[in-house]
Structures are given as structure tokens and as C-alpha cells.
Amino acid sequence: MSEPTIRAMEPATVAVDAGGSTEVAALSSSIGGGVMSGDEIPAIGRQKAITPVRAARRLREELAALNIASDVHDGYGLALVSVWFGLVVWTDGQVFRWWAGQEMGRARLRRYAFCPAGDPVMAARRVADRCVELRERGPVPVPGPNGCAPQ
Fold this sequence. Notes:
Radius of gyration: 16 Å
Helix content: 10-25%
Structural class: alpha+beta
Strand content: 35-45%
Largest sheet: 8 strands, antiparallel
Strand order of the largest sheet: 4-3-2-10-9-8-7-6
Shape: globular
Order of helices and strands: EEEEEHEEEEEH
């Protein structure tokens, strides 16, 4: 198996299938590339390493500044920011990732958006936009007596 190619990227959207294969579509036309194959890894500049929990807490603070409540959970080297029903942002301390709400092709590859963890302000704005989309779709399912939403 060959080493994956690492290509510098701006914030982008990633498609991941159940087998772990990925495609990344750049959001900025100022960078070359467009779609990345599964053997390429998005590298988002050189940035100072921060812990996943610290990155998640910084995102939570920026979301709070936008009047969006969220919770931070951590474990196993990742941190999650629970924002809204169907919107969870996870981070490894380098990148924030969340489902962009789109699927591609017959294989229904999910598109994931990502943003550098070093820029929680931009990440919060993009997550807030996604949160607005989800809120406009309708009410959140009400949990049943056992705490789970009815199926």
C-alpha cells in the first residue's frame, strides 16, 4: 500500500462512504484541486497543536457568541460538540468535521464539511449556517419515556 498524498487545503467538504473511502471538494476556487481521491489526506496548513477538548470548547464559546447552545463531550482522542438534532461537530484538535447534510451518487456518500480547528470563528459561522438549515426543517423529535426519540 502506498503512502497517502497530503495536499494543502482551505475549508472544504468531504464525502465519506461506509468503507472509509473519501472525496474532498474544495470550497474555495483560489486553491487548485477540486476533488481529492481516497489516497489523499487534507492538510490544513501548519498550526499549533491544541487538544481536542480545548478546540471543542473554543468552538462552543464562538457558537455561544452567536446565541447557539452546545455541549462538549470528549474521549478516545476526540471531542464532540453537540449542537442540534442531526448536527454534531467532532475534532481531533486539528480539524472540525460535521455532516454537511448532503449525499452524493447512488452509493449515497455523505458530504462532510471541515474547517481548521485553529479558526473556531469561521467554523462557528459555518456550523451556525448548518444549524439554521436544520431548524428551518421543522421541530426536533421529542424524546420518548426512555429518553430516546421515537423511531
